[in-house]
Amino acid sequence: MEEEIVRGVDEEIGKRRGFSNRSQAIEYCVRRVLEIEKYEDRSIRFMMDFLNLVEGHPEIGERYLEFLEEERKRRKQ
Q: How far is 7 from 22, CA to CA, in rounded Å?
């Protein structure tokens, strides 16, 4: 690992009381990255399913756009 990264990890360990050592901090980071990747994959699948649904039923897409516009106006108030 590059020295700059090692210093950064060591500084974070010093700021956060939850890590006893560098290995724990790295393990924590790897776990978070894997969780984020799972979340992103599910989001992509959801969007693809939604687009397929809208393709077969364009009225759903139109209603969704109307909803988003109403929500945008409501939030401005």
A: 10
